[in-house]
Amino acid sequence: SGSQLREIFDKINNLLSGKSVQSGGRTVSVTQHPQGLDFVYYKLAEKFVNQGEEEVASHRDAAFPIAVVASGIWEIHPRVGDLFLAHLHKKCPYSVPFYPALKEGTSMEEYQRMLGYQVKDSKMEEQDHFLKRMSGMIRLYAAIIQLRWPYGNKQGAHPHGLNYGWRWLAQMLNMEPLADVTATLLFDFLEASDVCGNALMKQYQVQFWKMMLLIREDYFPRYD
């Protein structure tokens, strides 16, 4: 609900602003340690990405309440946004977008990790689980670029707005499709855009429909 989101947002914003907040039954403040604020920036950005990887992957609509809080915090505390992108790009290189190439001297296990797979005891995770995690993170990213904190000052530009989504989509279509991954991520990205009110279509109009036509008539046939 809106009141719950506002309570969460205010608590995070207060913590980042140097105010004391209650956490785990005790009072904490970033001023308690010289690197306190840097640590909280880093862990908060990591937490947002983890929520995409875990919560959004399992509950797709969770992307929107998480994104609206993340977008609002990003607007007030830009460092969180920079670190969010860093964590996102590391866990999901397709959010750049980037398909890492296998280089000479790189072990297969290391390469699998570069691609975003979880590897434990030299065993790579199942493809379905991998795609689910990647989808969750891309869906959260797609929601963030088009949502803004409704209770803030909207006079300024979105800290990471629709132009970044348009750029991501164009860059994806300039790369050769990767089996399973590309189609899955394009679907989640565009579906998230649709749920949020066809934001890309409203922003780019005719150019957006040209992009959709390109996907249907030129890009998807490359999977055959």
Question: Describe it for me?
Answer:
This protein has about 220 residues and is mainly alpha-helical. It has one domain: GLE1-like (Serine Threonine Protein Phosphatase 5, Tetratricopeptide repeat). It is about 60% helix and about 5% strand. It has ten helices and four strands; from the N terminus they run αββααααββααααα. The protein has a two-stranded antiparallel ribbon. Strand 1 (about 20-25) and strand 2 form a beta hairpin. Helix 3 packs across helix 4 and helix 3 (about 65-75) packs across helix 6. The protein is globular. The model has no long low-confidence stretch (mean pLDDT about 90).
* CATH level-four homologous superfamily name: GLE1-like
Query: Which blocks of ≥5 consecutive residues have pLDDT under 50?
Result: none
Q: Based on the structure given, which CATH architecture is correct?
A: Alpha Horseshoe
Beta content comes to: under 5%
Question: How many domains would you count in the coordinates?
Answer: 1
Specify the helix fraction band.
55-70%
Number of helices: 10
Whole-number mean pLDDT = 91
Instruction: Write down the CATH class.
Output: Mainly Alpha
Offer a quick outline of the entry.
Helix content is 62%, strand content 4%. With 224 residues, the chain is mainly alpha-helical.
Entry keywords:
single chain; 224 residues; mainly alpha; Serine Threonine Protein Phosphatase 5, Tetratricopeptide repeat; two-stranded antiparallel sheet; 10 helices; 4 strands; 4% strand; globular; nuclear pore complex; GLE1
